[in-house]
TrEMBL record:
The keyword Transmembrane applies. The chain crosses the membrane at residues 6-24, 36-55. Keywords: Membrane, Transmembrane, Transmembrane helix. It comes from the Bacteria. This is Stage III sporulation protein AF (Spore_III_AF).
Length: 193
């Protein structure tokens, strides 16, 4: 880092010096020769770090690597870091699967909106995933049918749940079952309000 800082300071100093010399030089035939010499000096300054690198590049590279290897390591548990990364990867992959399912369902059933929530696990070693449960919230676009309202509770013995009033429920379950290769009992489709 110090070498870069030194190079930048030298380069800026040379640019200021060259500009000052050009400003005080006379406007005659000598000006083009002065510019040539100053340009040559500027090129030499710019190439000097490259020449240093080529000249002693191998020794510097090996010494830098050795310094890095001999640096003291922090007391960070490798297993805890690995587990933390594994949990984060699991969440990211599950989120990506949720987003992709939302997109696929919106493409297939454009008259509805979906909110997919997946509970599962990803095995990155074998590149496999296992899904324990999928909750799919469905909201129909446009105007919804008004459900029958029964005022007298004695006449109504059966209360309809949110999952019974979902349009295309069986199709959605079959689509998810075929797409994800999971059993039907792991899929819950319900209506979003």
């Amino acid at each position: 880092m110090e070498e870069i800082k030194g190079f930048v300071i030298t380069l800026v100093t040379m640019l200021i010096l060259i500009s000052a010399i050009e400003l005080i030089s006379p406007d005659n035939g000598m000006k083009k020769y002065i510019r040539f010499v100053l340009g040559s000096i500027l090129i030499a300054v710019m190439i000097s770090p490259l020449i240093k690198l080529i000249g002693k590049g191998e020794e510097e590279l090996t010494s830098t690597i050795n310094n890095y290897i001999s640096m003291p390591k922090e007391d960070v548990s490798v297993s805890s870091t690995f587990e933390s990364n594994k949990d984060n990867r699991n969440k990211v992959v599950m989120k990506n699967i949720e987003d992709n399912l939302n997109r696929l369902l919106k493409e297939k059933y454009s008259d509805s909106e979906f909110k997919v929530k997946i509970q599962g696990e990803v095995d990155m070693d074998n590149i496999e995933y296992s899904i324990y449960k999928i909750d799919v919230g469905v909201k129909d676009k446009g105007i919804l049918k008004v459900e029958q309202i029964i005022i007298n509770e004695e006449e109504s013995t059966e209360v309809s749940s949110n999952s019974e009033n979902v349009k295309n429920k069986k199709e959605i379950i079959e689509y998810l079952k075929e797409t994800l290769k999971i059993s039907e009992d792991k899929i819950l489709v319900y209506r979003l309000n």
